[in-house]
Specification:
The structure holds two protein chains of two kinds. Chain A contains 15 helices and two strands. Chain A is an all-alpha fold. The chains are: A mainly alpha, B alpha/beta.
């Protein structure tokens, strides 16, 4: 492993240790409620950028994957009383399968057609779940949390730590893809699909792979949400907000580097949490929109792009 | 063994390509021998690039077959054909714009150069630099592909094609829009590649270049072969002159 790799894993372990310490030290549950949401959006944004950023296929179906994750957990819990780890693993597997199916059906389409197809997917799945009585149908379903496992004092703290683990998994995957031949292939097909094919890049297979990984991560991120809210209903589980937020966070952070979506999700997620508490939960949607417009106009490469530009200018100045 | 008796490297048989009601290629059959320098000419819209797209796999053909080194590749996707040794450049250069010149070549080395599977990263870097040096692009290795001049872009496309270790290189108007000294430069490059056992199909409008380069020339007009033979034979052909002069 090179120096960067060691640094990354040391950072990841420190992050997890800090998260675990937080659950032992802080008694108040609110910080975990708030941070859970931010962590969840980091996973969603990072997952989104694997297909949307690296491959350039803009996916509006984040909420479809998220909702499927939620309802996988709901179903397994209600039918078998499955533990959280099983719920998440099953959600990831179903997400991977859904990503594969969606990819096969839609990845031959390019640009806006692919995006529209992903919205259609969301609507189809949401409608199906709305009509599925076993998981509560349109009126939703209440759930009783099982007893919490040690060393955690409350279920929310445990969910917070689990989501932190998912963040590490998602970021590690995105980072690996970015630095590997897979990332180079995705970047090539994002630039020019025909030229990539004619240079030996198996474009369809790589896009499918990106779609599978992205879908698995999104579904996994959604699975704990049912227990987090102790309630699930189709219109909030499949809320288009998840799609828009994941997209906005990735684009605002910048998709050229794995750190971009992380920065974007922390920045926007924190802002949204603050606004929800201080003003109202409606305003944060507005803020999201305004920030997206500002960044698209002012910094189309996102925060990562801004940082690179500043660095380049400084280097040029010295040279 | 004289080239005439060798098995063909590429065989195109009864190839037809229609776009809706328009027939772009009509029953085209041709064989390219190993090591040959093959010129492909014809007026605009005669089907040259369509033929190239059918050979490289960008278009599906119906009906007709493409055979490469005795293997039927008609149904293969473009990247599979690239891995079997068919490389091409594009009429309008299509670089990977978000990458540097060396990264453009690395894509080819990562994905297409199956013979170098075991090659380590530094070895591949050496391979890349030697290709860039041969193409006269060594000084541009770390420059973004968007910062290249027209002739550099053409050379980079050829370099990227070379990085796939081709047995057949298809150059689609690599000299279009270049000055006469630049045309000579690119022509010399293609000549030097041809001398290294790479079979080359060259599409070109610059007649002088085609005549100098080719062992054999084929002329297409409205999707049909109207002449094939040595450069001088084809130029002397009545129908070729009509097609070009429009009489």
């Amino acid at each position: 492993m090179n120096r960067n790799g060691i640094l990354f894993w040391v950072g990841a372990i420190l992050f997890l240790v800090a998260a675990l310490l937080m659950t032992q030290v802080i008694g108040n549950e609110y910080p975990f409620f708030a941070c859970y949401v931010i962590l969840q959006f980091i996973v969603l944004a990072v997952a989104w950028s694997i297909l949307g950023g690296y491959a350039g296929y803009v996916n509006f179906g984040t909420s479809a994957f998220f909702g499927v994750g939620v309802y996988t957990a709901v179903f397994l819990f209600k039918a078998f009383g499955a533990p959280l780890a099983v719920q998440i693993a099953a959600a990831a597997a179903i997400g991977a399968f859904l990503g594969f199916a969606l990819g096969l059906l839609t990845l031959r389409m390019q640009g806006i057609y692919f995006s529209i197809a992903t919205i259609a997917l969301t609507i189809i799945i949401e409608t199906s779940v709305t009509n599925w009585r076993f998981v509560g149908g349109a009126s939703g379903i209440q759930m009783q949390r099982p007893p919490v496992m040690s060393p955690f004092n409350s279920y929310v703290q445990m969910l917070f730590f689990v989501q932190a683990l998912l963040v590490v998994v998602a970021v590690a995957m995105a980072r690996y893809i970015q630095g590997s031949w897979v990332g180079r292939g995705l970047q090539a097909l994002k630039d020019d699909e025909l030229a990539a094919e004619c240079t030996g890049v198996p474009t369809l297979r790589l896009k499918l792979l990106a779609c599978v990984i992205s879908g698995a991560l999104m579904c996994a991120a959604g699975a704990p949400a049912a227990m987090y809210l102790q309630y699930a209903d189709p219109s909030s589980a499949f809320n288009l907000n998840y799609s828009v937020s994941a997209l906005a966070m990735s684009l605002i952070g910048g998709t050229a580097h794995w750190a971009g979506p992380v920065i974007g999700a922390i920045l926007l997620g924190t802002t949204q949490q603050l606004l929800t508490v201080t003003i109202s939960s409606e305003v944060n949607v507005l803020v999201l929109g305004v920030m997206l417009v500002l960044f698209v106009v002012g910094a189309p490469e996102g925060i990562i792009g801004l940082i690179r530009r500043v660095r380049r200018n400084r280097n040029d100045g010295e040279g | 063994m004289p080239p005439e008796t060798q098995a063909p490297l590429l065989r195109v048989s009864a190839l037809t390509k229609r776009f809706g009601g328009f027939t772009a290629l009509d029953n085209v059959s041709v064989e390219i021998r190993p090591g040959e320098r093959f010129g492909l000419i014809g007026p605009n819209g005669s089907g040259k690039t369509t033929l190239i797209n059918c050979i490289s796999g960008a278009f599906r053909t119906e009906p007709g077959t493409v055979t490469f080194r005795d293997e039927d590749i008609t149904r293969l996707q473009p990247h599979m054909r690239t891995r079997r040794g068919i490389a091409r450049s594009f009429q309008i250069p299509r670089p990977f714009k978000s990458m540097t010149v060396s990264e453009n070549l690395m894509v080819a080395l990562d994905f297409a150069a199956v013979t170098d599977e075991a090659a380590s990263a530094p070895q591949r870097r050496d391979t890349m630099m030697s290709i860039l040096t041969r193409m006269g692009l060594a000084s541009k290795a770390d420059v973004s592909a968007t910062k290249l001049s027209q002739v550099e872009l053409r050379k980079m496309e050829l370099a990227r094609a070379m990085a796939t270790h081709p047995k057949l290189l298809i150059s689609d108007e690599a000299m279009a829009g270049l000055s006469s000294s630049e045309v000579d430069e690119v022509l010399d490059l293609l000549m030097s590649l041809a001398s290294q056992d790479i079979t080359i199909i060259m599409i070109e409008h610059i007649m002088q270049a085609v005549m100098r380069f080719s062992d054999r020339v084929m002329c297409l007009d409205a999707g049909r072969i109207i002449a094939i033979g040595t450069p001088s034979e084809v130029m002397a052909n009545q129908r070729v002159q009509e097609a070009y002069l429009g009489t």
